[in-house]
Design goal:
Layout: H1 19-45, H2 50-78, H3 84-117
Helix pairs in contact: 1-2, 1-3, 2-3
Length: 123
């Protein structure tokens, strides 16, 4: 097929990573679900360190997603424009992934702070 008439990808073109866009929301969701499932066990067994540890690991996943989205945005900003439509969508997806990842990382950091200050178990 002639590359000049090839259809543009619908969303994210080749070379753009989905990880930068979905890692942080997936980490936040997993933190919420796993934290809710583990809080009863953590309070009953007295092993409170599990919940902040889980949140810290998932915070690192969210930061890795932000790093990947920033790398994609930087690569797309310095790339030569071949198709403005595709490059515009890819740049938007990379910047949206970066913003979302930073926001979710902030939420997870505040969550781990709350787990240390307030504690997961009622007294």
């Amino acid at each position: 097929m002639d590359p000049r008439v090839a259809p543009a990808p619908l969303f994210i073109p080749a070379g753009m990573s989905w990880f930068g866009l979905v890692a942080a929301p997936a980490a936040w969701s997993l933190n919420h679900v796993a934290g809710y499932a583990l809080v009863g066990w953590a309070c009953a067994s007295g092993q409170f360190f599990v919940l902040p540890l889980l949140t810290c690991v998932l915070l690192l996943v969210a930061l890795a997603g932000a790093w990947r989205a920033a790398a994609d945005a930087g690569r797309l900003a310095s790339a030569e424009l071949t198709d403005a439509r595709v490059d515009g969508r890819a740049r938007f997806a990379a910047l949206a992934g970066l913003g979302l990842s930073v926001l979710v990382a902030l939420v997870l950091a505040l969550d781990v702070l709350a787990e240390f200050v307030i504690g997961p178990c009622p007294r």
